[in-house]
Every structure is written in C-alpha cells, then in structure tokens.
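Re: beginner question about structure tokens

> Can someone show what the tokenized structure looks like for a real chain? I only ever see the sequence side.

Sure, here's an example I had lying around. Input first:
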Amino acid sequence: MERSVDVIETIRTTGACRYFKPDPVSDEVLARLFDAARHGPQGGNRQPLRYIVVRDAAVKQQLQEWYLRCWNAHLAGGYRAGTSGPSGGVSNVIRDADHLANHLEDVPVLIVVCAVLSALVLPDAKLDRPSVAGGASIYPSVQNLLLAARNEGLGGTLTTILCEVETEVRDLLGIPAELITCATLAIGYPDRRPPTRLTRAPVSEIAFSERYGEPLFTT
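And the corresponding structure tokens:
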C-alpha cells in the first residue's frame, strides 16, 4: 500500500541505507519510484535519464566484484569520509560503506542510472575545470526516487563508484554507446531503523547574503 509522509520529514530523514533485508521489492512499488523520478527537473525537458533495474543474482555478483575492486583501491589510497569514530577509529560512514561494498550482491534491487550524453545541457563545458552542470538534469531526479523510496518504507543509497568501470558495466548490461553511467542505487527494505536526524552543517555555515562569507542571518 502506498504510504504518505510529510515531505519535510522525508527530506530530513532520508539518509543513506546500506543494510538491507532480503525481502523483494515489487514491480508495483518500483513503478511508483520511477514515476516520482521522471518528474525531476531536466534541462530543456530533454529527459535524458534511463534506468536499468538489476535483480539477477549473477549480474549483481559481477557488479559487486568490480565495486569491491574500486572500493578497496580507495581505502588503500587513504580514502576518508565523515568524521572519525571513537578514539580516532574508523568512522561509521566508512564502516557502513564497507559493509555495502561487501554485500552489494545481497541488495534486493540495484538501479544503474544512465543518461543520454548528448541530451545533457552543459553550460560550463568550456570552463577550465570538470563540467558539473549536466548533473542538474540527473541527480534531482535520482533524489526524487530516493525520497519516494523513503515514502514506501524502503531504504536506499546512491553510489558512483561503478562509474569508474563504465566500460565493463556497459558491456555487462548492454548499455548503448550514447549513454553514460551516472550512479548506482541500492534499494530495499532497511535492516536497521531509519535515522530520525541527519548530521549536517548548520545553515549559518552554508548560506550567505549577497557575497560569500557574509552572514545571511543576524541572529
């Protein structure tokens, strides 16, 4: 049955879920997730996104093998995320991400997010830095999907690690040459209680008035 949760509550409690029950996710529920995703903003309404739902055990196992290879390379290179744990130990973020990397094949649904490259609007393509503006036609729709998943009682997380092996993923999933891979979503019913509060910087540290660094609020 479709659930309904206050939108602000949903936004404030949709954190990354990396522990999942084995319960399957029905096609009916997935249809509602993609319906929410397709209503995300897209430059020029070009609708560049395509989604590949992966539930086959052998395919998930192969994706996990590649994912682990990339993830372990990041760890070996000193990758850090979030804050350190007690006494400077491994942070919860690293611990949970490592769990996902080692159990990716057990996630009920993996969604590989792709986009038609020629349909992305790239106004920053000529700047002397990596282009990121095209993501405006990708990741808001992905967030819609994750918020809709939260509304259904599901958990999910977005990871871009498999983009490092795009050629292999492209061959495995039959992705046409005109598409790029943008993310992989792990979706399922959470094996742990969803958070009631996310750890984020206060508004005073991220929002400014007129010029960068000028406080937006005086109190």
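Each token stands for a local structural state, so reading them left to right follows the chain. Residues 83-89 have pLDDT under 50 and may be disordered.
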